[in-house]
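Fold Annotation — chain and its backbone
Next Lines — sequence and tokenised fold

***
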Amino acid sequence: MKYLFSILIISALSFQVSAQESVEKIMEGRAKEMMRVIALNDKEQWKKFIKENFTEAFINKNMKAKVVETDSNDGTTVSEETNDANNLEAKVAMFARLHDDFGDGKITSLKTTGDKVEMVMSTAQLKGSFTLKFESKKPYMIDGLGIQAGN
């Protein structure tokens, strides 16, 4: 009886670990695919990815961007904040900017913690840290995105 009970416990734990690995693979796969699509110079592919991989709530959510640039010659700082319209076209415009900044980049780090994937992208001129937040239930769509970039 103890042997049967042990097998049941081990089986249940194995199933849970296997399911967690599967969720992580789905989230990591979406993150990698996002960077592959951003590398394309194709607005329709960006739009298709957004529709198929972002939650409807995230697509409709207002986008906020803060850009801070420092001139290396004289040390002056320019800061610009935007609050784009809450629609698909604003997300496509974000992909266009990411394409310009990271289109030729490579993923240098990818780590999954809970419902988030932390991804680092590097180009010859720029390094970016991407935090993708996923919904906690199937189909595990992207529900939030944070990006920090610098030299």
In short: Confidence is low (pLDDT under 50) at residues 11-19. The chain is about 45% helix and 30% strand.
